[in-house]
Amino acid sequence: MIALDTNVLARLLVGDDKAEADLAVQFIRRHTAEDPIFVGREVILELIWLLMSRYKYPLEAVRQALDRLFMSANLAIEEEDAIKTALYLAERTGADIADAIIATIALQRDCTQIVTFDQDAAKRIPGMELLA
What we know:
With about 130 residues, the protein is mostly helical.
């Protein structure tokens, strides 16, 4: 199995470099559900950060971009269900997407709580508690 780095997905979604975007599309199209490309959860986290910080995507646009990736049969996205759940949590609570992903995955792994110094995350995300 082959894995993708964040910048390939960014070119695919943003298209700010047409030549690289075209290469990304061609590469991904060569793969199928039987021979998918692996996308690690860290890549998704980095992609979210990139879309929001560099490209100034609002949360709704990030969700739509990720939905496009989730619908692709030629991508095998690590923790896809947890990431979908976390996106919903972030939209519903106004929490940071990365914090929501961290909490969702931890809770799905039967952690009883996630300790943090992030006051906003502790207020918004069930299971996150301040380490005080």
